[in-house]
């Protein structure tokens, strides 16, 4: 079927609108840092938070306690405890009983505006991706431009759910800001008009293999941003403890605690790792059907496997006593660096069977 160029232009218009709305949401999240007031918690919530802090302090130095923790800061607004027995440590980032709309309303006007803009931007982004698929009559990730726009859509949607579930409003400026940067670079540097697939990609396995990789990349994108925030917060706390920085930094006081950031990053990678694993397996099956072998050490195949190994090492390190905290996050960011190298360098500049980036 011929490509619907008019619908392709509509898709791009929605994408530009989404980029504009994301930018406004970042401004609103930043406005909450600069001008927002902490929500007035009711006495019961304050008592529960005090109990959580006491339980966390009681575990310091105990075998099996998380390493790399720092001074407690303000966690996501409205966090409550999760009891799992008298000897258990409360969950540091529990789901909150307050309904989402009420929690957003209690978070202040800046957060209300930021969440409304973010949700509207995600809807426009989804419409842009869907209309691109309708324009080309296939899954809308057949070249580098489509892949990047789709993975940023996954990242924004995934993090929007995370923010609502854990009331992690303070992280919105960082994740949505990263989405704006990547999406802006895609629109300006690698924009590709709607077109037909190269013959090698005309297979139903595109819908299976590349969809899984797109979902996993979007989730790992969020984990990478959270990892960078964790390392920045950890460095600040260590500088304060060493007397090289003044305590009470306004940005750091609004962020979740180090332990909360560590837990959230770990959960994000745990969610994305099986999806990446399925994508690698699906790619091997597609390779067998297309080229008559499951594995041929093609550069993209090799780097996808290297990325899988690094993320597996992170999960192992995170679950091993003594390797939580800063060192584990270095491994996680190394995994994302491997993924980025595969997407931006291997597929674009190294000739191989996967050279379909569409970037000239």
Main pleated-sheet profile? none
Cα-based radius of gyration, to the nearest Å: 22 Å
Q: In sequence order, what are the helices and strands, one letter per element?
A: HHHHHHHHHHH
Give the structural class.
mainly alpha
Low-confidence stretches: 39-48, 56-94
How would you describe the shape?
globular
> How many β strands by DSSP?
0
Q: How many helical stretches? A: 11
**Beta-strand residue fraction:** under 5%
- Taking all residues together, what is the mean pLDDT? 81
Instruction: State the end-to-end CA separation.
Output: 25 Å
Helix content: 55-70%
Task: Characterize the structure shown.
The chain has 360 residues and is mainly alpha-helical. It has helices spanning 5-35, 43-58, 100-106, 109-136, 144-166, 172-189, 205-241, 250-254, 258-291, 299-319, 326-349. Helix 1 (5-35) runs antiparallel to helix 4 and helix 7 (205-241) crosses helix 11.
